[in-house]
Amino acid sequence: MEDFEFIEDKTPEKLTVNKSTFNRLIIAVVAVAIVSAFLGGYVVGGQTVEPKEIIVRETIQNSPAAQTAQQQTGPQIIRNVSLDDDPMKGNPDAEITIVEFSDFQCPFCWRFYTQTLPLIEQNYMSTGKVNFVYRDFPIQSIHPNAAPAALASECADDQGKFWEMHDMIFEGQQVWKDLPISQSVALYKQYALEIGLDTSEFGSCMDSGKHIEEIQNDLNDGRTYGVSGTPGFFVGNAEIGFIPINGAQPYSVFQRIIDDQLSR
């Protein structure tokens, strides 16, 4: 079963914008589109990685055989994953952190949000053992509404309501995903009204593309850490390192990795 929007490197396309046609927001989004063009950005399928495989790779990484394999495939543990100043949910002093690189228009990110994240919240975040950080990774070349959605969440974060907007956007994905950008932006502004934001401030933030650089920073960091599609996760902490998880894996994958890390 496919569970992952995969990005493949290719020669970037030259993007142009007709300023008389697009409003300021769309012009600002081009900055993200340019970055995405370098990443490629189209669906080529994905694979399901069994939790046992992930843990075994991490456990035997220092064996001679593992060292030889790492020369071919690279290390399985990422030692340092920046949380930047991105929105966090849960106990900030939790032992384990999950960092998600996500695209609001990605159907597999929606699957994680609806099927797996609630169980992680219930069993680990509510007990203070795990916190969760959301970072943007919009694949603009196949998801034209991904960057505007990311902007909407960042603008809501300015007013302390990132997670409320995050939830509204994912829950409404089927409504806005195929809309023209101008219409999707209008819907995000309606969401802002519904969650009690100052709509004038929110609208100015959206129309100016205020947080484009922040979104670009997330994209660049994700690429540095080897994110090759969405959703992409890193689970761990600075002391033991972070184990990458690719795709909308079932809860059992996260459960085994988290339990293994908590037992150290």
- Secondary structure tally, helices: 11
- In round numbers, the mean pLDDT is 79
String of helices and strands: EHHHEEHEHHHHHHEEEH
Number of strands: 7
**Percent helix range:** 40-55%
Could you name the key traits of this structure?
11 helices, 5-stranded mixed sheet, 264 residues, alpha+beta, single chain
Commentary on this structure:
By secondary structure, the chain is of the alpha+beta class. It is 49% helix and 12% strand. It contains eleven helices and seven strands. Strands 2-4-3-6-7 form a five-stranded mixed beta sheet. Strands 1-5 form a two-stranded antiparallel ribbon. Helix 2 (51-59) runs parallel beside helix 11 (251-262) and helix 5 runs antiparallel to helix 6 (162-171). The longest helix is centred in the middle third of the chain and has 19 residues, at 107-125. The model is unreliable at 8-23 and 26-75 (pLDDT under 50).
How would you summarize this macromolecular structure in one to three sentences?
The chain is α+β, with helices and mostly antiparallel strands and about 260 residues long. The protein has helices spanning about 25-40, 50-60, 65-75, 105-125, 145-155, 160-170, 175, 180-195, 200-210, 210-225, 250-260, and strands at about 5, 90, 95-100, 130-135, 230, 230-235, 240-245. Helix content is about 50%, strand content about 10%.
